[in-house]
C-alpha cells in the first residue's frame, strides 16, 4: 500500500481521505450522516440512471410510460420506489446533518458550511424537478404554482416565468427542460460534495465537546469505516422496508391521476420535505413578501458563520441555547404540519406565528449564548 500510494496520486488521495485521515476520537453517531448522505447520493444517481432509460419527457406520454413501465420492465417498480423513497430519506439525512451542525457549531468552518448550504439548495432544486416528471396532477400543479412564484420578481418576473415554461404555460417544453436539469443536477451535487469534503479535511472535523482535538485523534480506517457501515445498515433497513411493504406511503394519491390543466386539485401541496418552507410562503399575504420569506427560510443558513462567536463551540454547555435549539426543532415539525393543511383559518395564523419563531431562532441564538458567556 505504501508503494502504491507513493507512485499513484489517485491512490494517495483515496488513502489520505478514507484510511489514514486523522479523525477526533470522540465524535458520536451524529457524525454518521455525512457518509449516509454519500450513500444516498449514489443510490439516487444509479436508480435515476436506470429509470431514465425507460422514460419519455413528453406531456402526452410521460404519465403512461411511468405506469406501463411498472408491468413491462423488469424491476422498474423497485427502482421507482427506491428512487422516490430514497429522496425522502436523503432529506431526512440532510436535515439531521444540518441540525447536528447547528447544535455543535460546525458552521464556524465557513467554507465547509457554505458549500453544504449550496448542496442543500441544489438538492432541493433537483427534487422539485424530479417531482414534476411523472406528470401526475400534483406534479403538474406543483410545477405551475412554484414556477409562477418567479412572476413576483420586479421588472423581470414575467420574462423569467416564460423562460422557465418555454412558452405561456407549463407544457411539453417545460417538462423537457426539467428532465434535462434533473438529470444534470445530481452530478453537480457530487462535485459539490467533493469540494465539501476537501474543505472538511483541510479544516478538520468538529466534535461534541466543541474543543480542539488535535492531540486526540485516530485514523479513519478502520474505526470510523466500521461505524459508518453500521450506520448504512440501519439506514437501508427502514428504506427497504418502506420499498417492499408500503412504497407509496410518502406519496400523494393525486399523483396517480394524469396531470390535467382544466382540473385543479382541492389542496395543492409539495412533498413533505418542502412543507416547512411552503408554510412560510403561505404565511405572508403579499406574493413578493412570501417569495422572499421562502428564500430566506433556507438562505438564512448562510448567516450562521457570521453570527456572534462564543467561548465554546456548539450548544452543549449553553442551557439557554439548547432550549432555543430544541424549540426551533419543534417549530420545524409544526411548520411541516401546517404546510400540509388547507389555506384557511386557523392554519394561516398558526403558520405566521411559527414562521416568526423560526426566524427568531437565528436572530436570538447568538446573543443568548453570548450573554451566558458573560454570566459564566
TrEMBL record:
Tell me the residue numbers annotated for binding heme b b562: 83, 182
Q: Where in the cell is it found?
A: Mitochondrion inner membrane
Q: Which amino acids does the record list as binding heme b b566?
A: 97, 196
Q: Does the keyword Transport apply?
A: yes
Describe the task this protein carries out: Component of the ubiquinol-cytochrome c reductase complex (complex III or cytochrome b-c1 complex) that is part of the mitochondrial respiratory chain. The b-c1 complex mediates electron transfer from ubiquinol to cytochrome c. Contributes to the generation of a proton gradient across the mitochondrial membrane that is then used for ATP synthesis.
**What terms describe the molecular function in GO for this protein?**
metal ion binding; oxidoreductase activity; quinol-cytochrome-c reductase activity
Which regions span the lipid bilayer?
Answer: 30-55, 86-106, 112-133, 140-166, 178-200, 221-245, 272-302, 323-340, 346-366
Show the SUPFAM superfamilies listed in the entry. a domain/subunit of cytochrome bc1 complex (Ubiquinol-cytochrome c reductase) (SSF81648), Transmembrane di-heme cytochromes (SSF81342)
What's the name of the protein?
Answer: Cytochrome b
Q: Which cofactor does it need?
A: heme; heme b
Which family does this protein fall into? Belongs to the cytochrome b family.
Q: Which UniProt keywords apply?
A: Electron transport, Heme, Iron, Membrane, Metal-binding, Mitochondrion, Mitochondrion inner membrane, Respiratory chain, Transmembrane, Transmembrane helix, Transport, Ubiquinone
Native source species:
Tigriopus californicus
Amino acid at each position: 500500500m505504501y508503494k502504491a500510494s507513493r507512485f499513484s496520486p489517485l491512490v494517495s488521495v483515496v488513502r489520505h481521505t478514507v484510511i489514514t485521515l486523522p479523525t477526533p476520537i470522540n465524535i458520536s453517531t451524529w457524525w454518521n450522516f455525512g457518509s449516509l448522505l454519500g450513500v444516498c447520493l449514489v443510490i439516487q444517481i444509479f436508480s435515476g440512471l436506470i429509470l431514465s432509460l425507460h422514460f419519455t419527457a413528453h406531456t402526452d406520454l410521460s404519465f403512461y410510460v411511468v405506469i406501463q413501465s411498472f408491468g413491462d420492465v423488469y424491476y422498474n417498480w423497485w427502482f421507482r420506489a427506491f428512487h422516490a423513497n430514497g429522496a425522502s430519506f436523503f432529506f431526512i439525512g440532510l436535515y439531521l446533518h444540518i441540525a447536528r451542525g447547528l447544535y455543535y457549531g460546525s458552521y464556524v468552518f465557513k467554507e465547509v458550511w457554505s458549500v453544504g448550504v449550496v448542496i442543500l439548495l441544489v438538492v432541493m432544486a433537483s427534487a422539485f424537478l424530479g417531482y414534476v416528471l411523472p406528470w401526475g396532477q400534483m406534479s403538474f400543479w406543483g410545477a405551475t404554482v412554484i414556477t409562477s412564484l418567479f412572476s413576483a420578481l420586479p421588472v423581470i418576473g414575467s420574462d423569467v416565468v416564460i423562460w422557465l415554461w418555454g412558452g405561456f404555460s407549463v407544457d411539453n417544453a417545460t417538462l423537457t427542460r426539467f428532465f434535462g436539469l434533473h438529470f444534470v443536477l445530481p452530478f453537480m451535487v457530487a462535485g459539490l460534495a467533493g469540494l465539501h469534503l476537501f474543505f472538511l479535511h483541510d479544516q478538520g472535523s468538529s466534535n461534541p465537546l466543541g474543543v480542539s482535538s488535535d492531540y486526540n485523534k485516530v485514523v479513519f480506517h478502520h474505526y470510523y469505516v466500521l461505524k459508518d457501515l453500521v450506520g448504512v445498515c440501519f439506514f437501508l433497513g427502514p428504506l427497504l422496508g418502506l420499498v417492499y411493504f408500503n412504497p407509496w406511503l410518502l406519496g400523494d394519491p393525486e399523483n396517480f391521476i394524469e396531470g390535467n390543466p382544466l382540473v385543479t386539485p382541492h389542496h395543492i401541496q409539495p412533498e413533505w420535505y418542502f412543507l416547512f418552507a411552503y408554510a412560510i410562503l403561505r404565511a405572508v399575504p403579499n406574493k413578493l413578501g412570501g417569495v422572499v420569506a421562502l428564500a430566506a427560510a433556507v438562505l438564512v443558513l448562510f448567516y450562521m458563520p457570521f453570527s456572534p462567536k462564543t467561548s465554546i463551540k456548539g450548544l452543549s454547555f449553553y442551557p439557554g441555547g439548547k432550549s432555543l435549539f430544541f424549540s426551533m426543532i419543534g417549530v420545524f415539525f409544526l411548520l411541516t404540519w401546517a404546510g400540509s393543511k388547507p389555506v384557511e383559518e386557523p392554519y394561516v395564523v398558526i403558520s405566521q406565528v411559527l414562521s416568526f419563531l423560526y426566524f427568531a431562532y437565528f436572530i436570538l441564538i447568538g446573543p443568548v449564548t453570548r450573554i451566558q458567556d458573560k454570566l459564566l
